[in-house]
Amino acid sequence: MTSRWGVLVLAVLLDGTHRFSELRRTIGGVSEKMLAQTLQTLERDGFVHREAHPVIPPRVDYSLTGLGREAARQVWALSVWAEEHTPRVLAAREAYDAARPGA
Hints:
By secondary structure, this protein is an alpha+beta fold. It has helices at 4-13, 20-27, 32-44, 66-99; strands spanning 18-19, 48-53, 59-64.
């Protein structure tokens, strides 16, 4: 959950069930291998439910478990907080840098 991709997967799945290809398209920039590893880790940790349908071509759906929804909401809340407070963080950086010329 603490990886970059894990956070993004949780955020996307907060909107509902998605297939692997949908997740990959929505997230963008993630390799197939990394997404597969991330989903497997999230499933192992109890955040994601994987449902394989016995059809041709194979279809696998991913959704959040109860624990996963809780985690995704927390991650989302932190993301919103960070976005809202970015101007304060940038101001703090500028003040810090201004107080230390040449550093």
